[in-house]
Amino acid sequence: MKPIKVGLLGIGTVGAGTFAVLKRNQEEIRRRAGRGIEIAIVADLNTDRAKEITGGTVEVVSDANLVVSRPDIDIVIELIGGYGIARELVMKAIANGKHVVTANKALLATHGTEIFLAAQDKGVMVAFEAAVAGGIPIIKALREGLTANHIQWVAGIINGTTNFILSEMRDKGLDFATVLKEAQRLGYAEADPTFDIEGIDAAHKATIMSAIAFGTPVQFDKAYVEGITNLHATDIRYAEQLGYRIKLLGITKRTSQGIELRVHPTLIPMSRLIANVEGAMNAVLVQGDAVGPTLYYGKGAGAEPTASAVIADLVDITRLTGADHTHRVPYLAFQPGAITDTPILPMSEITTSYYLRLRVADKLGVLANVTKILADASISIDAMMQKEPDEGETQTDIILLTHQTQEKNVDSAIAAIESLSTVDGKVTRIRLEHLA
Q1: Domain identity same for 105 and 165
Q2: Which of 55, 68, 144, 243 is deepest in the core (most CB within 10 A)?
Q3: Of the candidates 415, 366, 403, which has an alpha carbon nearest to the alpha carbon of residue 386?
Q4: What is the pTM (predicted TM-score) of this model?
């Protein structure tokens, strides 16, 4: 059978990895796909570099429009990134009847609904395993492997940069700024790390997983996003003493009121496997009603791990090119007509537990005033730790862990606590999930 022809848009880190793995494992891939898969043309602004990577074996152009409009191209791989030109090219490829493979989580989290609708109307496939957690096949697990389950929640460490930073802060007791510089030196963090450290990258991925898990449109604009820039090594140390680790989690939950969709630093009990995921690794924990908890772990970034997911999508599309498009696995797991616009809850309505750290005057009655405020806000205390003040100090730290309560209750309690004359500065709040 004639090989399927692929056009590659962007041959940076992931593009080069895709080209290398596809070439190296071409015979294995052909045996699995049922026919050969060949990259016939590459578009990249740096044509000299593209020619060096491809070794002159394929056509190289600087204009990506030549790829998406070329008649003999069956599949377009989009690895450009961003929201602008990438969206234009993906929509043109679909309009020209080409299947699309993309690793662009930002594009899908913001324009996924539009892209999937266009692909459905045209009868082509859009595959995006590489958009979430790199080489971990979490999209396939949510969309196919767990299809019998009523999924209750998904929680993931889905940004390797922030996990590396938090691991280093804990292991070495260093502050955030120091570890960020080290992460940039080692290549774990970009020169501009904003998308990673502010939680935006993780929120893009959590948005996609939420839509697949619960059969809703992609709704990134409704996600709550909080990064790790305000985390202190002090809180990481206190959390350890209480039996917890702090991770940046992407969390989505189904509740009777709606869906929670949030990214923020989170305390997790050390006994949970996901709490022990270190360095730049990723892990996603999924709770289904039939299967219970399942954990997916691996490299969430890098040239060849991400290429692994890109090529898996190429093989899936190759296998299904002759199938009636109405019989293919739906983009968001649920049939298009069964997608429901379930509301995403505002953060004030979510329910979880909390870690609260207060800097207080070392006086009698301070703790009694704080606990009364919490009780008045219907917040019960699960655990408490009060540190002895250092010699000569007149202030100390009180750390409280609460039972589950609504965020709005904690908001009002924190405002009242901060107004006490015996409390210095702001209360540190970190959410806590038992993931049980």
Answers
A1: no
A2: 68
A3: 366
A4: 0.95
Q: Are residues 352 and 407 in contact, defined by beta-carbon separation less than 8 angstroms?
A: yes
How far apart are the C-alpha atoms of 205 and 186, rounded to whole Å?
A: 24
Same domain for 271 and 358:
no
Domain ends where: 299, 327, 360? Answer: 299
**Rounded to the nearest 10 degrees, how much is the dihedral formed by the CA atoms of 294, 133, 256, 350?**
120
**pLDDT for residue 104:** 97
Res 416: pLDDT: 98
Kindly state whether residues 13 and 109 are assigned to the same domain.
yes
Four-point Cα dihedral 167, 170, 172, 173, nearest 10: 140
80, 65 Cβ separation under 8 angstroms: no
With vertex at residue 198, the alpha carbon angle to CA 262 and CA 236, rounded to the nearest 5 degrees, is 85
Task: Find tokens 């005033």 and name the residue.
Answer: 369
Tokens of residue 221, six digits: 């604009």
As annotated, the active-site residues are 205
For residue 186, give the H/E element and its range.
Answer: helix 176-186
345 within some domain: no
H helices, E strands: number in the chain: 15, 17
Interstrand relation of 259-269 and 224-225 (parallel, antiparallel or unpaired): parallel
Residue 357 · residue 427 · CB < 8 Å: yes
74 phi and psi angles, rounded to 5 deg: -95, -40
294 and 146 assigned to the same domain: yes
Distance CA 348, CA 293 (A): 27
The rounded distance, in Å, linking the Cα atoms of 178 and 275 is: 23
Residue 404 main-chain phi, psi, to 5 deg: -65, 140
Q: Do 97 and 206 share a structural domain?
A: no
Other beta carbons less than 10 A from residue 131's beta carbon: 27
Do 61 and 67 contact (CB within 8 A), yes or no? yes
Entry field: residues in the chain: 436
What is the CATH classification number for the domain harbouring 195? 3.30.360.10
Containing structural domain, residue 373: 351-432
410, amino acid identity? V
Q: Consecutive 10-residue runs of the chain (436 residues): their mean pLDDT?
A: 95 96 96 96 97 96 98 97 95 98 97 96 96 96 97 98 96 94 91 96 98 96 97 96 98 97 98 96 98 96 94 95 78 90 96 97 92 97 90 90 98 98 96 96
